[in-house]
UniProtKB/TrEMBL annotation:
The keyword Flavoprotein does not apply. Core subunit of respiratory chain NADH dehydrogenase (Complex I) which is composed of 45 different subunits. It comes from Habromys delicatulus (Delicate deermouse). It is a multi-pass membrane protein. Core subunit of the mitochondrial membrane respiratory chain NADH dehydrogenase (Complex I) which catalyzes electron transfer from NADH through the respiratory chain, using ubiquinone as an electron acceptor. Essential for the catalytic activity and assembly of complex I. This is NADH-ubiquinone oxidoreductase chain 4. Residues 2-84 form the NADH:ubiquinone oxidoreductase chain 4 N-terminal domain. Keywords: Electron transport, Membrane, Mitochondrion, NAD, Respiratory chain, Translocase, Transmembrane, Transmembrane helix, Transport, Ubiquinone.
Amino acid sequence: NVTSYSFMISLLSAMFLWQNNMNVLNFSLLFSVDSLSSPLIILTTWLLPLMLLASQNHMKKESEQNKKTYVSMLVLLQILLIMTFSANELVMFYILFEATLIPTLIIITRWGNQTERLNAGLYFLFYTLIGSIPLLIALIYIQNLTGTLNFLLFPLTLVPLNQTWSNNILWLACMMAFLI
């Protein structure tokens, strides 16, 4: 039942593909979909039904409560990822990106297949948190420099980011968080 609903949501999300590059679908002041975020949102909505289908055989042995918890974690992860990819504010993006760690960590440590799943969850948590600290520092620096972290307000800022070595370090800090 959840799988069929998630397939319907996946099909509905395909409407994001048919938007002009200049158009941005504003849902609120904090969330919108543009040509960069729409493929990521569509991919996210297609992953939930595929994960549910892929885990059906493994979940047959689980109790009803564990099945509901598993599906709830997957749905929560999908909601957080959709919010992450549609965030206009970079701090909101950062917070939502870090919030996806919680259901992912629970899924890894509870339903991981190997005996090393606890170590894998611990490594996942620490590598991701340590890798995202430079991103947070870069975001705070950009906020102090430009006065905003909103994508829609960046063109209106009076302080452009010039090509200097410190901006190269900012770029490296941001990229390191995503590469990890």
